[in-house]
Amino acid sequence: MIGEYRGMDAHKLVNGRKRTFVVDTQGRLWVADVNLANGADGALAVPLVTSILWRCGDRLEKFFGDQAYNGVFAAELATWSIEFEKASRPESAKGFVPVAKRWVVERSISWTNFFRKLVKDYEYTISSSVSWMYLANIQIMLQRIQSKNQT
């Protein structure tokens, strides 16, 4: 289905595109991008830094991310004097341990699974794919506002 701009992520065995999100602590989508699946997560997130700084300016103080964003992305944030905190499980932990900071992003990604257009990438262009991600997040936030007003 994907017409252009696709690749193969050998680690996750994903063929196609990779979505990159920047969400706040409430799970609201601020910036999204779609790239080749064979790119490194940290390097793909670097262009999002200028986009998020354009939207929120000097209010941004800290980014949370996992190990994949610890290198190139963290260095880019340091040039803007923004702190990067790696959200990872404790060294002494064995097995599955939920990490609170990481679950905010994972929850936001799982919310998009309720939208058929986003479960599989049916879009031919990446701009269309990004637009559907924003539209899905707008609908999620409107539903949250509506449910909050009804209680």
Characteristics:
151 residues; alpha+beta; Nucleotidyltransferase, domain 5; three-stranded antiparallel beta sheet; 5 strands
How far from one another are the termini?
A: 42 Å
Overall CATH architecture: 2-Layer Sandwich
**Average pLDDT value?**
82
Query: Could you name the CATH class?
Result: Alpha Beta
Tell me the Rg in angstroms.
Answer: 16 Å
Main β-sheet: number of strands, strand sense, barrel status? 3 strands, antiparallel
Tally of separate helices = 5
Strand proportion, as a percent range, falls in 15-25%
CATH fold descriptor: Nucleotidyltransferase, domain 5
> What's the SSE pattern?
EEEHEHEHHH
Helix fraction?
40-55%
Catalogue the unreliable spans.
none
- For the secondary structure, the number of strands is 5
